[in-house]
Amino acid sequence: MKQFLFTLTILIGAIVLLPLTGFKHIGAAKPDYKISTDTGFVVMEFFTSQGCSSCPKAEELLGSYVEKNDSRIIPIAFHVDYWNPLGWRDSFSTYQYSARQEKYNRDYLHSKSIYTPQLIINGQKEFVGSNAEAIKKSVDETLNQIPSVNIHLQNATVTNGKLTVRYTMDGNFANSSINFVLIQHKTTTDVKAGENRGRTLINYNVARHLLSTTAKDSGICVLQLPLGIAASDLSLVLFTQNKTSGRITGAIKKEL
Known about the structure:
The protein is mainly beta. The relative contact order is 0.22. Helix 1 links the parallel strand 2 and strand 3 (73-79). The chain is globular and about 50 Å long. It is built from three helices and 13 strands.
């Protein structure tokens, strides 16, 4: 099994955010709802590429966690772009996700190597994405940890291809960011070149949009929905992350 190791030197570009002040309700009125996490949770950040022959096995493992449908377990697949010049361009890949993986390895995990498939749990522990036994052990242990931040999703409205999100938080979110991720539940791609040429790949919980800003006790965010994708095929994930340690301190997921 071939595994691709790559070392990058990159600058993390500014992420464009819409203002998080002055909430304005958009579209038809919906009853407010509240979702919060006050029990253990696991954010599984999976760095992958359709061009990597080692990734499909790890994708299957990630899919098994998605299919558990456990609200405490939140898998997110970030497709990196550094495989793209090697035969197959992954249409879900972006430099932003490669930069996120680089920051993890450089600043938080202190690793000199970048590789796929890599899985990072709650911003603290990393694994080869196909290492089922080690990942299960870490997931089980992490679910016993109580979050230090509770995120309350107050309202989410889809209008004209945009999602407007209103949230509040409590707990210790000093020196933290809050991240908003739109994930597509499941995709199927016929790969016509590269290491996976001739294979039909199934990808789970694919990140389609990521925005990040400084955590506050309340705020509003507007995200653009991917073109041609029904809102019912998407979920919204919110999670807080300490800027110094990289630890993810609270997380929730909501189906659209």
